[in-house]
Amino acid sequence: MPSIILLLAGRMRAILTLCRVGVLLGLSLGLATCGSLPSVNLFGSNAPPEGEVGHIRGFLGGVVADEPQAALVGRQALSVGGTAADAAVAIGFTLAATLPSRAGLGAGGACLAYGHSEKSVNEGKPEAILFLPAASRAAGGDRPAAVPMFARGLFLLHARYGKRPFESLIVPAERYARLGAAAPRALIEDLNVVAGPLLADPGARAIFTRNGQPLREGDPLVQPDLGATLAQIRVSGVGDFYQGTLARRIAEQSPVVGGPITMAALHGALPTLGAPLVVPWRSDEVAFLPPPADGGLAANAAFTFLEAHPNDPAGAAQRALAVVARWRQGGVTAEQVLRAASLPQAALPPLPASTGFATLDRDGNAVVCTVSLDNLFGTGRIIPGLGFLLAASPANVPPPLYAAALAWNRHIHAFRAEVTGTGQTGAPLAAAVGMRNTLLTGQAMPALVPDPGRANVIGCASYLPDASGSCRWASDPRGAGLAVGGQ
Which of 283, 293, 271, 292 is nearest to 404 (CA)? Predict the structure, then answer.
């Protein structure tokens, strides 16, 4: 043993000598110094260094997203040593390039984030990160737009739970935008719904058609202006989008697409942190997104109803919609409306589409998000030179039901399950049923959630970080998403 220690000490002295020489040469010649020298692994491991694919060996965790290319980007973020938040940020930005009908730089959303350790930023409890699109107060325009919240929301998520350099998580999205993604089935299905009015916009027509015809699945989806905007965010930071060069360009060009957004509105567009709505479930607890992400409120109501009436999903759906309708009328707290013994049946107006994704890393940290443009393809007009769509203003269209849930055990600081709910009015019930089925069976999506809802699920039959072999992930088979992880 002493000889090994002496050998390692000798190698360390040699490395330090090389570093000193490198610093001197770097200062005199402007060359790279010690920080950029190849790393030396004294213990002989052949694992790639952190930041390279394959750095994490064995159990990686898992990711689920409604678009496969984005899901694979999230898995790569875990493979290089990133956290669940890193994977979620990478997925979010990639969706801006691969599923711009539902996600994008003009969008907003809400996430539940969980750091399993009591030493984590929120002391081992889930917290909500809310970045819902806000109505612009600027007058004029024939298509009122929302103030973009997407980039700042993902930045706040990363600032609290991320590990990898933020700019590195934008690179895959930038690459897909510049070089082209394969147009995914989910995007083509959305495009077929609104192709007529959408393709009347020259900017949208340039992106979403090929040879004069709407894109088909697998066609190249190339967005050079979006790629340049992502590059600007990567190089200059998210702040540039809200108070720098990009902000000025948004303010100048937004009236052209019908929804004026001012510099002041961009500067004041700040995401917030919130305490989730929590329901006990046996020895675990289930957190739901809190208002103003009121799909979480509705999912909470549906979950609680199903605990008392497990064979009545229709009743749970009615209760969920009645709760959210009463909440949207105003004048009550979330607790008051959830405790209301009876509420009149409610029929909500047609609601916007959304998309959801979930991530889990090997340590048991987890993130689950839903995002939306408040309409398929938002306002339907691309901002000239910037390459993205603005979300429709919530002052003109009803907001979507952002529905997500996350289960954990506070006593042993361990993750159990997470679920996204999408599908317009079916989103809350999807999140509630998806979560309840996973907790009851220990399986990810043992049965389909009721139509029109769709769910993405990650669940562990036991708990993570201890029982990685019990964890599974599933995307709704009626959709076009992908669930992927690794051992």
Answer: 293
